[in-house]
Amino acid sequence: MTKPPIGGNRTGRKLGQKVKKGKLKASSRRWIERHINDPYVQRAQLEGYRARAAFKLLEIDEKHKILSGAKRIIDLGAAPGSWSQIAAKVTNSTDSDPKVVAIDFLELDPLAGVHILQLDFLDPTAPEKLMTALGGTPDLVLSDMAAPTTGHRQTDHIRTMHLCEVAAYFAIDVLGEGGHFLAKTFQGGAERELLTLLKQNFKQVIHVKPAASRAESVEMFLLAKGFKGRKPGAASLYDSGTEIDDREVADERDSVEAE
């Protein structure tokens, strides 16, 4: 069972550490202090995960069982790779028979059992390359993509929702019947059309916020469970002429752990 750290940590590191002022800006110093004192960060280091984001996925799965039985998984916006680590483990993926494909336009250090594509997901060639690399139908599409924050909440939400929408169309295009889709989003408006799309194509659509997602963060996750199957003649983002190669929208750096 995945439980949040309670009453300290198991790393031996003391919580409440301070960072010397030096030449750091006050905001940078506060961020570093929060990061090094975060029990999820310390637990990730102890358990060998590349980022604290691993526990967001594990906590969501503990309740909703989206990893159970998954044979092939696609991880969008994968850097630095903690979700792919989990995906490779649950699918028994190996380098000789990879069942997990990860994509990010940042360079990603190699992961056992994970086929990595260093490519912007908004590149028009990305969907085909992902499916070719996977070599079969995915049971689960994960997306931890988010646009770089501007400080303006509504702008950040709209930009991230664009990524979420593109990921949703991709999932609908490629998932096998009964498959699941999980994507990061931000709290706010401008998502009615996306929710309608998902409800039309999945048996259950819910918002989730795992304990590992910081309480003060506007981060949420959209979970669509039980794909109903591709409808004959249904519109596809990739054959509709919609322009998706928008270079102003980029993955949030999971390695920075802004959330």
Description:
This protein has 259 residues and is α/β, with parallel strands linked by helices. It folds into 2 domains: 30 residues, no CATH class; 178 residues, Rossmann fold, CATH 3.40.50.150. It contains 7 helices and 7 strands. It has a 7-stranded mixed β-sheet with strand order 3-2-1-4-5-7-6, sandwiched between helices. Helix 6 packs parallel to helix 7.
Q: Keywords for this structure?
A:
259 residues, alpha/beta, Rossmann fold, 2 domains, 7 helices, 7 strands, 32% helix, globular, disordered C terminus, RNA_methyltr_RlmE
Give the secondary structure arrangement, pairings included:
Blueprint lengths: L25 H11 L2 H9 L6 H11 L8 E4 L5 H10 L8 E5 L9 E5 L7 H9 L5 E4 L9 H22 L5 E7 L5 H10 E7 L10 E9 L32
Parallel strand pairs: 1-2, 1-4, 2-3, 4-5
Antiparallel strand pairs: 5-7, 6-7
Helix pairs in contact: 6-7
Protein name: Ribosomal RNA large subunit methyltransferase E
Main location: cytoplasm
EC number: 2.1.1.166
Short description:
With 259 residues, this protein is α/β, with parallel strands linked by helices.
Strand content: 15-25%
Any idea what the radius of gyration is? 18 Å
Query: Which of globular, elongated, flat, extended, rod-shaped describes the shape?
Result: globular
| Regions with little confidence, pLDDT below 50 for 5+ residues | 4-20, 238-259
Helix content: 25-40%
Count of beta strands: 7
- By CATH, the topology of the largest domain is Rossmann fold
Helix and strand succession?
A: HHHEHEEHEHEHEE
Main-sheet strand order equals: 3-2-1-4-5-7-6
Distance between the termini: 23 Å
Summarize the biggest pleated sheet.
7 strands, mixed
**What CATH first level of the largest domain would be assigned?**
Alpha Beta
* Secondary-structure arrangement, i.e. CATH architecture of the largest domain: 3-Layer(aba) Sandwich
Number of helices: 7
* pLDDT averaged residue by residue: 80
Structural class: alpha/beta
Total number of distinct structural domains: 2
CATH superfamily of the largest domain: Vaccinia Virus protein VP39
EC number: 2.1.1.166
Binding site for S-adenosyl-L-methionine: 81, 83, 104, 120, 144
Pfam families: FtsJ
InterPro entries: RNA_methyltr_RlmE, RNA_MeTrfase_FtsJ_dom, rRNA-MeTfrase_E, SAM-dependent_MTases_sf
